[in-house]
Amino acid sequence: MYHVERAIFDIRRGLPVVIHTGSRPLLVQALEGSDSVEALAALSGSRPALVLTRHRLAAMGHSISAEAARLPLAAEMDTATLHDLAVAKPHGEKQRLSGLSPAGPGERGALALMRRALLLPAALCADVDEAQQAAIEAKISYGELLRLDAGDALKALHGAPGMLKRVSEADIPLESAQASRFVLFREPDGLREHVAVVIGAAENAAGPVPIRLHSACLTGDLFGSLRCDCGDQLRNAVAEISALGGGVLLYLAQEGRGIGLANKLRAYTLQDAGLDTVDADQVLGFGDDERRYGVAVDMLNALGITQVQLLTNNPLKMAALRDGGIEVVSRQALYGSVTDQNQRYLTAKANRSGHYLHDALRDALNDAQPNG
User: Fold this and answer.
1) I want to staple 123 with a disulfide (CB 3.0 to 4.6 A). Which of 48, 51, 80, 265 is the partner?
2) Active site residue 288
3) From CA 40, how far away is CA 35, in angstroms rounded?
4) Please, where in the chain does CATH 3.40.50.10990 lie?
5) Confidence of residue 74 (pLDDT cuts 50, 70, 90)
6) Is 289 an active-site residue?
7) Which residues form the GTP cyclohydrolase II domain (predicted)?
8) What is the pTM of this model?
9) Which has the closest alpha carbon to 160: 4, 17, 268?
């Protein structure tokens, strides 16, 4: 975890890191924030390639079975061209890409680091030429470059199951639930913190506990954005859990379905141009939902909760808890307001992601019909 944490910070600063693959070392760097590929080419002694996810390639008209692919870069490609390959909205026709090959463990590990760092999932990767390996080893020994094993890089997205730390807690009365206590948990790499809002006497309960898994949404939760229903769901969940006699709301640091705030804003811009939420994320190189709920399982285990009544419209949350050994005894729907601004977003979640929202959308449509 220590090496992964260091690698993520170096990558966010625009620095390259070395990924050990068992053969020739691989020098990797984030495309986001990169000014030129020439410095990476000079350092590695070989021409870099651009590594893209299958989601981004599908948006450009290329269907591949591998998780990612490596695209050799021509010498004349500038950073604007690379940016277009990584994030620009496709213009209808298939973009011609020659020389695509499945990404190896090192390249896939590079993309995992980008996603963990909440950057665009696009990486510049260059094999270290034999003539440059001594120079690279010297930089590693002097601490100028960090070396990371490909296997560790690939595990970056999964965190460290079972190693979540319960750090601090305090009573914080809420408007809808005065008997509330906030318990903060920190992931072992120190990058993310999550909060369990314990309402009433929910810890170590004998029966099913009302639980809400809520992913952080700065725009909706704090500012009341009309583009989503997150703020309504957050407040409704606290009120409902309190009405049920107590339970826990897990507030998870997974902004934008796990892609981070910067990428969520990029996706919003693409949605303004006509894409739905799923297609917008795919154009940026992400899947339908990048969130992972292992941390939620760890939080529930730390609170002594093994049976839950889950407040959710998302079948993936139910499956994730069950896979983690938490018994989901029942599910309760939890809706926010359906507005002109968020109806297209909610419809895409229902029709393309399988969320249980059709009843809420139908009721909203009926309410909008003129009486008569």
Assistant:
1) 51
2) no
3) 10
4) 165-254+291-368
5) confident
6) yes
7) 166-331
8) 0.90
9) 4
